[in-house]
């Protein structure tokens, strides 16, 4: 059953399109990686789904509801969580207060941080009083994912979650995302540059080229020739 469907979507900044006639369907429970060279529209696609970029034409349907013109703050209450590139945690707030920010978007109107957050991210429990800006890059990324999980999402949109993170933490993030998908049924759409990580994490892929979908399929079908054609710099 489809959870997120983009039909003939063109979107960008003002009336300047970055995406052109994008068709994409993501089913409930999928883990999907969105691949492509820099500047091909991957981040714009995520931002359009969450409502931060203007849809010039086309439709975005989420869980059978047309959300094309729904404000961003309401989309989070539909169960869409966005973990942006660069993480964008609040550096002068504590880990605890950063997590509490996620409560505002919770569909279940939670009053406290669920224990399962610390089951997925035990490191955070040890640093609750520490300022977010004092965490390592990998720890900040885990905090950003945990904050997104606080809204009890149906889908998480992650923009380059492995960027600038050491390999051991990348492996932890891979395992945690798979657990979130498996144990909570959260669908994942992940923009990623690391091909090996994408193949390890996702079941399906889309490749973007100049604002359009150039290729798609199961990650087992992500051949060396496709990588050379669309992803090699």
Topology readout:
Elements: E1 2-13, E2 16-27, E3 31-35, H1 42-50, E4 54-62, E5 65-66, H2 72-78, E6 80-83, H3 95-103, H4 115-120, H5 122-125, H6 137-149, E7 155-159, H7 167-184, E8 187-191, H8 195-201, E9 204-209, E10 212-218, H9 224-230
Parallel strand pairs: 3-8, 3-9, 6-7, 7-8
Antiparallel strand pairs: 1-2, 1-4, 4-5, 9-10
Provide a descriptive summary of the structure in words.
This protein has one domain: 3-Layer(aba) Sandwich (Rossmann fold). A hairpin with a 2-residue loop joins strand 4 and strand 5. Helix 3 packs parallel to helix 6. Helix content is 34%, strand content 29%. The protein is built from 9 helices and 10 strands. The strands form 2 sheets. Strands 6-7-8-3-9-10 form a 6-stranded mixed β-sheet, with helices on both faces.
Strand content: 25-35%
Q: What distance lies between the first and last C-alpha atoms, to the nearest angstrom? A: 36 Å
> What is the second-level CATH architecture?
3-Layer(aba) Sandwich
**Rounded to an integer, what's the Rg over CA atoms?**
17 Å
Largest sheet entry: 6 strands, mixed
The count of strands amounts to 10
Choose one word for the global shape.
globular
Mean pLDDT: 92
The CATH superfamily bears the name P-loop containing nucleotide triphosphate hydrolases
- Percent helix, as a range, is 25-40%
């Amino acid at each position: 059953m489809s959870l997120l469907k983009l039909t003939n979507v063109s979107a960008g900044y003002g009336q300047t399109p970055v995406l052109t006639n994008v068709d994409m369907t993501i089913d409930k429970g999928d883990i999907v990686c969105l691949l492509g060279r820099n500047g091909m529209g991957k981040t714009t696609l995520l931002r359009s789904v969450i409502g931060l970029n203007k849809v010039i034409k086309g439709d975005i349907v989420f869980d059978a509801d047309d959300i094309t013109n729904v404000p961003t703050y309401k989309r989070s209450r539909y169960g869409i969580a966005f973990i942006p590139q660069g993480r964008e945690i609040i550096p002068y707030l504590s880990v605890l207060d950063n997590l509490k920010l996620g409560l505002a978007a919770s569909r279940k109107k939670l009053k406290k941080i669920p224990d399962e957050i610390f089951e997925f991210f035990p490191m955070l429990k040890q640093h609750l009083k520490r300022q977010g800006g004092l965490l390592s890059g990998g720890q900040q990324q885990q905090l950003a994912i945990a904050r997104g999980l606080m809204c009890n999402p149906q889908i998480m949109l992650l923009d380059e979650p492995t960027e600038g993170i050491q390999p051991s933490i990348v492996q932890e993030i891979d395992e945690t995302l798979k657990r979130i998908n498996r144990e909570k049924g959260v669908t994942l759409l992940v923009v990623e540059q690391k091909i090996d990580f994408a193949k390890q994490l996702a079941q399906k892929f889309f490749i973007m080229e100049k604002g359009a979908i150039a290729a798609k399929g199961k990650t087992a079908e992500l051949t060396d020739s496709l990588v050379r054609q669309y992803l090699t710099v």
